[in-house]
Give the backbone structure.
Amino acid sequence: MTDNKELNSPGYEIPDDLAHAVSITTIDRLYNWGRRSSVWPLMFGLACCAIEMIAAQASRYDLARFGMEVMRPSPRQSDLMIVAGTVTKKMVPSIVRLYNQMPEPKYVMAMGACASGGGPFKEGYNVVAGVDKFIPVDVYVPGCPPTPQALIAGLIKLQEKIDKQSIRKVRWYRKGADTVQIPVPVLGPDIMDPRRYDEIKRLASRAVPAGEKPAEAVEATSSPAEEA
Ligand code: SF4
């Protein structure tokens, strides 16, 4: 819990007898203080890392100290997606869809080696090499699995990131669309970027001699974030 002294960021002198009742601060500081102290994570887990995330929410580590104990079962009420576990190709479309359903401001944390880069399954036929190839990640927490303490350290990093934002510059208060829609990948022979349907269909319709694969076909199956 932030006390009055910390909130008093411009540093104006406040008489001692009012120090516990009055704060002089900036809109940015107040705006960020409220958001960083009530981050609501989306409640879902993908694999073993999720067990550590659950432990972090239990009484021993007590995320209520950071205002983050309210894990929401709906993306509409969440502002933090903790990707905890192995991200399979089958799961990626659902993860991106959930991300798109979260309102702004929203943040993403990649918890563990699997979510950050594929982990021990990096070369696997069914696992993506990091969720950041599909959605923007704000904080990476290393480890296999990261301990609850490591997750909490990552959450504190996220709070520091929120502290640096300015209400005058954040994307979600600007004119125009208030969110970045990420195309939902499609599960196929490999995961596909819907923006490249026509190109993929054209390449797939070409006759390819057995055992050969045209170079452009390899390129066409790359993930959307690799192009960004
Ligand atoms: S990083 Fe390790 S502990 Fe976490 S999901 Fe992958 S294999 Fe499991």
